[in-house]
Amino acid sequence: MSNQNCSIEEQREKTGFNFYEDVSPGLKLVMEMKNIYVTTQSKFQKIDVIESHFGKHLITDGKTQSTQFDEKSYHETLVHPALFQSACLTPDFGDEKKDESIEAPKSIFIGGGGELATAREVLRHKSVSRVVMVDLDGDLVNICKEYLPEWGGETVASDPRLELVIGDCYEYLLNCEEKFDVIIMDISDPIEAGPGIMLYTQELYRHATSLLTDNGVFVTQAGAADAIPSKKDLEGSSDTCCFGPIAKTLGTVFNCVLPYTVCIPSYGSDWGFVMAFNSPNPFSSMCEMINMPIDQIDNMISSRIAATKNINDSTDTDDSELLEHYDGIAHHRMFSLPKKLRTCLRNEKRIITKENPVFMY
Q: Which CATH number fits domain 16-67: 2.10.25.10, 3.60.15.10, 2.60.220.30, 2.30.140.10?
């Protein structure tokens, strides 16, 4: 082969397919697509599992759902603060005579969560005895079990504490008579014509209060929460960020609302979550959660969360590595929002209802 041909081949090896994702108006995330494991169309959405810069990578309708690199940052952030808050709201929490590891929370509802990773994190809590997970797309669940077993797979799906329901989460909740200690919404973003929009409304949040126990906590993923909002966000004009409207809407139903964020590199931005609950002493309860001492959080992780087997070997995880992302220090960062983002949240006026939905980009 001539030197010229060698040079051509070397250049070809450097090229490849790229995955493009629109993050926000005028902003795209581009990464090399190293492999395609599966691409298919379910009844509800297009599903792709690829290998990218972030390892295994789940995409639905062109939007990143989770990646091998940072899915634990997302799922640990969504699950553990809410379950710990439910425990703290339980009467006699902290009583040395009680075995805190088995008191609460016990019953958990998960809306969405098709990757099974949210259920994975919930089931690690020793207190949990029942989990109901309702996801609309059975094809997605099966694809995740087959191609993303690291997210939870059949091990989670076959856990006897988990009731997996393939169906409409909105309809399930409307007809549900069971009460839960924690309701977790790991659902699709509120995009126009998408299946998840009704699960972000004031009407649904109000109904959710009737499904929570006295120590009940509601938590939802809430979309992009950029540390540096765009100019139009700061001016309060119509925009496509749902973090503020979700927090504002929850605040019309619950007397304690705690927005928080975590950096998810594969999403191209910080990501927002909102926890909500009712308390007879709202200000005190919110401050206790936000300012919970680092050692108390680490002790709760150590006492309440079960070790798991590493997927690559049979060794147990030691206490210092029970969780990959969440610990006492991470907790304080999650609830310490940048000033501009706090300003956006404070100035937010939009309330999401059936008649006035807010759509994400």
A: 2.30.140.10
